[in-house]
């Protein structure tokens, strides 16, 4: 019998092997392993784990079903709160959410809630188990902008309530960051994302790709000309930031968004697709979040030596711990407490190196983290041919600048209340990264649910 | 799917297509562009909107075969379809939002180089429909490469055609024509709009700066999404970094750093060269070119 204080270990691809392929790193539990891990849950009366989950999944409820081998029942329990469990089970920062609150975590390791959720959801995908279908439609039309987790969740919830929902997506694929940002080796696109979206389609939601709201049409026109009675904006925070240092426009300097989009959405890593990617031989990724880890591990798989250049220390890395751990195992080198000053460019306009400076941690700043300050005179040069800037993103002003009466704050985020996603414009609701700035999948889903509640209340009381 | 209603060869390696895309046709303005994607595995290719028919719901595009994707695209026939066709993207030309009375006072000169005739046409046509006759310089390498001449003739004030080799119209580069018009033929212009290959726009801008003629150019950097999400299309414009797909594609030509922009557009040259070889030589391309050393 395994140590009850420890999680049942999950099978993964060997680091050496996976560093050279784009297959999923974590292989997940099989039923036997899942049932064993489920038995570690003590089914707390006042289950703290639930309060750590932004969509309040009945965690002990579904785990109990897993323990007894009733996987289909477990899926139904999860399905009441989450539309995309196969995705959340993979990408939620569980350590700071559900698992961070688990009683088991006080003495030993918490119950592996994320991996169990993933197992249940994958089982449902494999066995074609569908969420509870819609009632008859009520004839009210709602438009959802963006097919990321917030939009998908809002659309799914509204469809279940009987609304006729159309999702408008700017890109040629559905899924938002789930398809263009998060790489295949962490979140398989066909096996998982496409299938979960299929389930939303089965609820009766219509999808229109290649429609950029603010350009192809506007929110006002959707309402006035196309008969939509309410709109949910889930357009994300896609605008990449750059540092503003010399040399940043050189060939070989990318935003993480560009690098990841070329590889994930356009499948540049696969030779049979037409879009090229300049993978690089020696790559510096600037930043320390999930996005930086994804860019670094993608570059690694494209054959490069990869350095993460991050201005704070390891403790402050904002990425999920599992991603940092995986990146290290695969051979990504961490240059911590280091910050770029300048990118050197050769005569043809290509990157040939980067000047960096050592940092030390000073007093805590507004975020509560100790502020990094430069160590005078500690500049040195590193030789790189590619620099990937992963400094964060902000909402695209395309929608706010073309919608009358939609209030935004000074970070260009749409102002919306948390409970119902209500904006300053009547009939228009918003949520996800477009409101909060870059956050997480599960928070975006929570906001999608709130928006659906808000829109339902609004249309019922009209 | 977006159906191709017409496909016509205008000149060697220059193709015109009418594509059914009602949403785009309903909202587009001169100066804007679309992104097309042929099939599942295709690249996203930005192309300027050359004409539109709001009633029929069609968009006209004109493109030149320059690399792997545009060469494959040229094989599409009437009745085929693009998998994706998104737009209108980018900002409309500035004059679209100017007060008509102000606009009527302006003398405008359009300069089109090569396929640049395609993006110039809807702008001159729009002005014509609003009662403004703009002059147009239409330049091409040689007689056979002159496109959209009749169409432009019908909507412009004076049309000056020129070929580099003198085989048709005036002789010499578009810059020579601009110089002649302004310095020898006593023309007075308030604004110039130059659209064509980057190198042409660069030299037009060097000239018009000397002539004190404000100049707008339409930039065509490498793009991926076309919605402001990736930053691939960034340009140095004055002391600012601009994203061509959302801030442009039109900019003050006297502020654009053309040398940097031209280097950036060479970024994928070797990669794309390989793609082109793969396309033209099929499986036999590996290791043959002495350039990439094959795939091993
Ligand atoms: C590389 C990367 C890795 C990440 N890793 C994790 C992780 O491990 N765990 C985690 O929890 N979170 C992670 N995140 C964050 C998470 O993905 C986002 O917080 C989440 O996707 C936000 O969801 P959303 O629905 O608000 O927006 P998005 O997922 O950004 O979707 C917005 C959609 O709207 C579309 N859109 C935008 N503008 C328009 C318009 N004008 N008209 C029509 N459509 C439009 C966009 O094309 C996009 O498809 C990661 C993010 C990135 C970039
Ligand atoms: C806003 C915008 C509007 C455009 N409008 C038109 C149009 O109306 N008609 C038209 O024919 N083309 C237009 N272009 C250019 C067109 O998108 C490119 O020619 C096309 O993407 C090349 O694809 P490819 O795979 O066939 O060639 P590639 O193999 O990608 O390129 C072949 C060669 O062309 C160069 N190249 C690559 N991209 C560009 C570019 N954007 N501009 C100039 N040279 C490039 C490369 O350096 C390479 O050497 C436009 C571009 C933009 C950004
Ligand atoms: S959705 Fe995320 S936070 Fe909630 S239980 Fe699942 S993994 Fe934990
Ligand atoms: S806190 Fe942990 S042990 Fe308790 S119910 Fe939740 S998962 Fe089970
Ligand atoms: S093409 Fe991606 S930001 Fe302009």
UniProtKB/TrEMBL annotation, chain A:
Keyword terms of this UniProt record: Oxidoreductase
Protein name: NADPH-dependent glutamate synthase
Matching Gene3D superfamilies: Alpha-helical ferredoxin, FAD/NAD(P)-binding domain
Domain 4Fe-4S ferredoxin-type residues, every copy: 32-62
InterPro entries listed in its UniProt record: 4Fe4S_Fe-S-bd, DPD_II, FAD/NAD-bd_sf, FAD/NAD-binding_dom, Helical_ferredxn, SudA-like
Gene Ontology MF, one: glutamate synthase (NADPH) activity
Nucleotide-binding keyword on record: no
Top-level EC class as recorded in UniProt: oxidoreductase
Domain of life of the native organism: Bacteria
Enzyme Commission code(s) on record: 1.4.1.13
Organism: Schaedlerella arabinosiphila
Pfam families, alphabetized: Fer4_20, Pyr_redox_2
UniProtKB/TrEMBL annotation, chain B:
Record GO biological process: pyrimidine nucleotide biosynthetic process
PROSITE patterns: FAD_FR (PS51384)
Keyword match Protease: no
Cofactor mode of binding and number, as noted: Binds 1 FAD per subunit.
FAD-binding FR-type domain location: 1-98
InterPro entries: Cyt_c3_hydrogenase_gsu, Dihydroorotate_DH_Fe-S-bd, FAD-bd_FR_type, FNR_nucleotide-bd, OxRdtase_FAD/NAD-bd, PyrK_electron_transfer, Riboflavin_synthase-like_b-brl
Protein name listed in UniProt: Sulfide/dihydroorotate dehydrogenase-like FAD/NAD-binding protein
